[in-house]
């Protein structure tokens, strides 16, 4: 009875409370004022857009525009407060109506005055700005393009126009031979000098300095002349520790976690020791770069540093052990060359119907660009959107050309391109001014931020906001506002050119700021977004100043900073919407974080926090929470269900099971990259996954042996449309846990959505690897991996897959039925490994017209009554312990003109690969032959000398083997260079000694005359040829060997996806 009355009272209280609240919303003066304010803001935003590009020309606009933006921002804050309070009250669980009403009345009593004040400010400032715009005849509707404008191609043109002379001059100065036949020649200018050579490339922004440096960096003979190449973007924020760490990471390809500068420099010394190194320092802004080069004294003769900078004063060198080469000064491209380049960028083709009308206009515009490639790329992208005469005339006659600029300045061109962007793209792009120059952007990250800042409108159509935001990014990329940088770890990264970044910052100078210690006093009180490079350099006094910026919306702190003032931040910056503190030294979140009621985005990933305070659950506006890598986090706070606005959440992996206890929250938010472990404890069951309705990225489900019913698997509801990758794990070390039939039923119940692109199955013991949904049910699947699965058959695969990988699948004896070209027409990569495998349709592989990668390993029982046939598209072929498959060598090598890497290991049936066959492998540059005991002949000396990498180990019947050495035909190979798809490294010239190989053991021995003080190479690169004069005539002449380095077989390079590593602030390239 008591329980009945408690529920009745609670129901009445809630009903009365809600009625009272609804009455207050409807009857208060606030509601009408809020509606009026919402209706006013669009007009104010249009005025801002109309005038912002003219602030560079008209001082009254420049002075008034920040005040208008501040008024609009203040109005947006009031709207946020209203929405937040309404959300809080409506979602509260109030038992006493009077308490609810009193709290709400207190808030309402002071709020109307704030709304009216915001309304008056917006009206007044907008009126003033409109008068000024009319006085200067600023057009009301600036020329723009809609989203349906003609798409354009990327600025990454396959052909480089001009700069041939500059390239030749740079190559000559570096001492790099032009011919492959003399790549070891030491007669160059640099090789004669023991000083470190410095090659400066100087020129205005946008003239092509970085492009020329890239041409040198990728030049064919530069690849082989230098043992180690590293590319680092320095930019205007010089940080010795960070840049040294980046050089090490580029050189090794591994993450560097050392924080001590002395230790970093010692590490770098060891890396460059006795190697000829090419270091590119791109975008130098001061003389501080010389501090980076201390460890370079250990590099060998011929090492060089290429600098790119706008100011030649920055390359004046004070150190005595450096040699400044001739300065390469870049000017604009020659007129004829530049016109050809401009035509490509603008889409002007000779055979187009209006070519004659557009040519004259185009030549006028082209003449104003001063030969600068960046100007042609940017403005050309604008012109090609509409190839009609009036559009080109409008651009030619635009008043933007009248903006003040230097003689060789192309800023008006870039400002004109920005002016023509649609308003929604202007907002998205200008926001990027928050970040420093050369910051790496990803489309996914920007899309999330644009949505959070409400740059993306809510669509009435079925299109998701995330997809619309990605469309915006691609529109900007196609208009050349973002430039492709690289694709590291499968993530495409983009940068903004320095000059375009300057345009972006000039437009948002009152809103976005990159903070350094000495700049703290320059920050406007109206600033909205701040990026802090190094929080440790900001004094307590300056922190207090920053926390008085009442209009600050965003505080983004560079990773790995020590952030000690979060409690003061939560007290002072109550209007902040975004707080980003990734990898910062934070151990505790203060209780007063509940003050940040406008907070929508919080990134505390990879921090050391143990828990979140209960006040955290009052952040009703929080939409994005990133706690990935918070491995010391103990639990979620009580009341997490109140965070009903949370849309995107990256939780710590070990706390994912706890999320299932807040199902209401799980249904609303999006989870990225989730690992879930199924337990038998009755709590972390497979069924709990149904609450994770919005999982994107990957989903790993482990310990599926704990699922014993198909119905339980079906209740997981894996039909999640945003999921890209699904990995299913059974523990294959357990025996008799569940029957094979249960495995099959569980897999059948785990049916994913048709959008899935990657599927991995590990440790599965069902009879058939193919559930009913494997075929036509996954039309978008691209990659399939079966690992340690104990099955008899694989009956079907989706036609869409491009990568198939089967590893250690015992009991699987045949792939005849499913591995057919007509069933898998798009297949690009095959990796097969299984000792029980007996039958493969290798005779039909030639019909896989897109096949590029083919690897067979540990297929000891494979029978091949027919020879393997391969398509010309093959780029990499690897056979290792593959039964009778090696009988197909050399016949299957015919016409493989695209083959780049050939690896043969433990292939006893290969006797000979004739020179005629090898010569047809025109693209081959890596040949590895290991433990082929019956191999007697292998091509000829001329062909093997042409290879970049030739590794031959333990082939006792190859009668004549020697290490290529001496003579002018020696191929100089880079030290430490990673052989693609191989674990081998190539010894430096200093490490090379003439070697011969014992025909019976394959053991390399040092010949007389080889430098006794040089270390043996860690791997042996050999080729067939005649012995040199220095070769020993008998074993008695061979010195004793006290240590023989181990020779490691190449690692398998499979087409598997790797986890993305922690993002770096700058990207750099290493060989």
TrEMBL record:
UniProt feature coiled coil, ranges: none
Molecular functions per Gene Ontology: ADP binding
Compositional bias segments (type: Polar residues): 999-1021, 1049-1060
Domain R13L1/DRL21-like LRR repeat region: 686-805
InterPro entries (UniProt xref): Apaf_helical (IPR042197), LRR_dom_sf (IPR032675), LRR_R13L1-DRL21 (IPR056789), LRR_R13L4/SHOC2-like (IPR055414), NB-ARC (IPR002182), P-loop_NTPase (IPR027417), WH-like_DNA-bd_sf (IPR036388), WHD_DRP (IPR058922)
GO biological process: defense response
Keywords: Leucine-rich repeat, Plant defense, Repeat
Gene3D superfamilies in UniProt: Helical domain of apoptotic protease-activating factors (1.10.8.430), P-loop containing nucleotide triphosphate hydrolases (3.40.50.300), Ribonuclease Inhibitor (3.80.10.10), Winged helix-like DNA-binding domain superfamily/Winged helix DNA-binding domain (1.10.10.10)
Region (Disordered): 999-1071
Annotated Low complexity bias: 1027-1042
Transmembrane segments: none
Domain NB-ARC: 190-343
Composition bias type Basic residues, residue spans: 1061-1071
The keyword Oxidoreductase is assigned to this record: no
Domain Disease resistance R13L4/SHOC-2-like LRR as annotated: residue spans: 561-647
PANTHER family: DISEASE RESISTANCE PROTEIN RGA3, PLANT BROAD-SPECTRUM MILDEW RESISTANCE PROTEIN RPW8
Protein name, UniProt field: NB-ARC domain-containing protein
Species this protein is from: Rhynchospora tenuis
Record lineage: Eukaryota, Viridiplantae, Streptophyta, Embryophyta, Tracheophyta
């Amino acid at each position: 009875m008591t329980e009945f009355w408690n529920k009745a009272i609670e129901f009445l209280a809630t009903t009365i409370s809600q009625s009272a609240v609804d009455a207050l919303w409807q009857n208060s003066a606030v509601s009408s004022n809020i509606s009026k304010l919402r209706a006013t803001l669009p007009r104010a935003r249009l005025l801002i857009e109309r005038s912002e590009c003219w602030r560079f020309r008209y001082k009254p606009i420049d002075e008034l525009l920040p005040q208008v933006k501040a008024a609009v921002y203040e109005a947006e804050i009031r709207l946020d407060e209203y929405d937040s309070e309404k959300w809080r009250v409506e979602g509260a669980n109030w038992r006493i109506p009077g308490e609810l009403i009193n709290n709400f009345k207190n808030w309402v009593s002071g709020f109307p005055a704030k709304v009216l004040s915001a309304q008056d400010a917006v009206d007044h400032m907008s009126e003033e700005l409109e008068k000024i715009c009319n006085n200067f005849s600023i057009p009301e509707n600036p020329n723009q393009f809609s989203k349906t404008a003609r798409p354009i191609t990327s600025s990454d043109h396959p052909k480089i126009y001009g700069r041939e002379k500059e390239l030749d001059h740079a190559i000559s100065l570096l001492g790099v031979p032009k011919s492959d036949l003399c790549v070891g020649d030491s007669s160059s200018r640099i090789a004669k000098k023991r000083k470190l050579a410095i090659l400066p490339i100087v020129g205005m922004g946008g003239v092509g300095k970085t492009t020329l440096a890239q041409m040198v960096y990728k030049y064919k003979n530069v690849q082989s002349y230098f043992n180690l190449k590293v590319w680092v973007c320095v930019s205007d924020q010089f940080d010795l520790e960070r840049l040294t760490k980046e050089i090490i990471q580029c050189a090794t390809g591994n993450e560097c976690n050392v924080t001590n500068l002395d230790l970093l420099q010692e590490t770098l010394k060891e890396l460059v020791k006795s190697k000829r190194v090419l270091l590119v320092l791109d975008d130098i802004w001061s003389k501080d770069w010389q501090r980076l080069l201390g460890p370079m004294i250990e590099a060998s003769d011929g090492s060089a540093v290429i600098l790119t900078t706008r100011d030649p004063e920055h390359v004046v060198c004070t150190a005595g052990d450096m040699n400044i080469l001739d300065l390469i000064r870049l000017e604009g491209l020659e007129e004829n060359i530049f016109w050809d380049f401009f035509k490509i960028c603008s889409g002007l083709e000779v055979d187009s119907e209006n070519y004659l009308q557009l040519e004259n206009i185009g030549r006028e515009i082209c003449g104003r660009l001063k030969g600068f490639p960046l100007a042609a790329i940017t403005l050309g992208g604008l012109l090609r959107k509409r190839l009609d005469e009036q559009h080109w005339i409008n651009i030619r006659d635009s008043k933007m050309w009248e903006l003040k600029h230097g003689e060789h300045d192309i800023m008006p061109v870039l400002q004109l391109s920005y002016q023509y962007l649609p308003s929604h793209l202007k907002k998205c792009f200008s926001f990027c001014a928050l970040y420093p120059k050369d910051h790496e952007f990803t489309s996914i990250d920007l899309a999330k931020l644009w949505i959070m800042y409400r740059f993306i409108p809510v669509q009435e159509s079925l299109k998701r906001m995330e997809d619309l935001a990605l469309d915006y990014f691609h529109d900007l990329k196609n208009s050349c506002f973002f430039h492709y940088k690289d694709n590291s770890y499968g993530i495409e990264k983009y940068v903004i050119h320095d000059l375009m970044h300057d345009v972006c910052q000039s437009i948002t100078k009152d809103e976005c700021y990159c903070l350094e210690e000495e700049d703290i006093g320059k920050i406007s009180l109206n600033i909205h977004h701040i990026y802090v490079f190094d929080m440790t350099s900001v004094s307590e006094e300056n922190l207090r100043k920053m926390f008085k910026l009442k209009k600050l919306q965003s505080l983004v702190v560079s990773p790995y900073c020590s952030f000690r003032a979060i409690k003061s931040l939560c007290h002072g910056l109550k209007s902040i919407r975004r707080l980003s503190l990734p990898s910062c030294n934070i151990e505790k979140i203060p209780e007063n974080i509940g003050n940040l009621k406008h907070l929508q985005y919080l990134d505390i990933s990879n921090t050391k926090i143990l828990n979140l305070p209960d006040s955290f659950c009052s952040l009703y506006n929080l939409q994005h929470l990133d706690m990935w890598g918070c491995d010391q986090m103990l639990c979620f706070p009580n009341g997490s269900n109140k965070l009903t606005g949370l849309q995107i959440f990256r939780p710590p992996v070990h706390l994912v099971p706890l999320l299932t206890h807040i199902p209401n929250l799980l249904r609303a938010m999006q989870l990225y990259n989730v690992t879930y472990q199924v337990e038998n404890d009755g709590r972390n069951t497979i069924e709990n996954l149904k609450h994770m309705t919005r999982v994107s990225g990957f989903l790993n489900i482990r310990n599926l042996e704990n699922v014993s019913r198909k119905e339980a698997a079906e209740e997981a509801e894996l039909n999640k449309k945003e999921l890209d990758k699904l990995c299913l794990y059974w523990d294959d070390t357990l025996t008799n846990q569940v029957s094979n039939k249960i495995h099959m039923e569980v897999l059948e119940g785990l049916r994913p959505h048709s959008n899935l692109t990657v599927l991995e199955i590990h440790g599965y013991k069902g009879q058939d690897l193919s559930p009913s949904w494997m075929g036509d049910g996954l039309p978008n699947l691209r990659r399939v991996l079966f690992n340690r699965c104990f099955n008899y058959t694989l009956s079907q695969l989706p036609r869409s897959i491009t990568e198939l990988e089967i590893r250690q699948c015992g009991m699987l004896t045949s792939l005849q039925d499913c591995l057919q070209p007509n069933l898998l027409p798009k297949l690009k990569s095959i990796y097969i490994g299984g000792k029980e495998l007996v039958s493969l349709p290798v005779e039909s592989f030639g019909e896989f017209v897109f096949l590029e990668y083919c690897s067979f390993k540990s297929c000891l029982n494979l029978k091949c009554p027919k020879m393997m046939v391969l398509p010309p598209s093959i780029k990499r072929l690897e056979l290792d312990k593959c039964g009778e498959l090696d009988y197909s060598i050399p016949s299957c090598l015919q016409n493989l003109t695209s083959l780049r890497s050939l690896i043969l290991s433990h292939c006893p049936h290969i006797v000979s690969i004739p020179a005629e066959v090898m010569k047809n492998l025109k693209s081959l540059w890596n040949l590895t032959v290991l433990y082929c005991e019956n191999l007697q002949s292998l091509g000829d000396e001329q062909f093997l000398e042409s290879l970049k990498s030739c590794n031959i180990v333990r082939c006792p019947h190859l009668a004549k083997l020697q290490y290529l050495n001496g003579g002018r035909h020696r191929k100089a190979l880079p030290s430490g260079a990673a052989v693609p798809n191989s674990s081998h490294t190539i010894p430096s010239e200093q490490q090379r000694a003439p070697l011969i190989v014992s025909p019976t053991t394959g053991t390399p021995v040092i010949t007389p005359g080889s430098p006794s003080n040089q270390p043996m190479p860690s791997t042996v690169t050999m080729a067939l040829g005649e012995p040199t004069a220095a070769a020993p005539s008998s074993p008695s002449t061979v010195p004793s060997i006290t240590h023989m380095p181990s020779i490691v077989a190449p690692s398998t390079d499979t087409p598997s996806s790797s986890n993305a590593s922690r993002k770096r602030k700058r990207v750099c390239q290493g060989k």
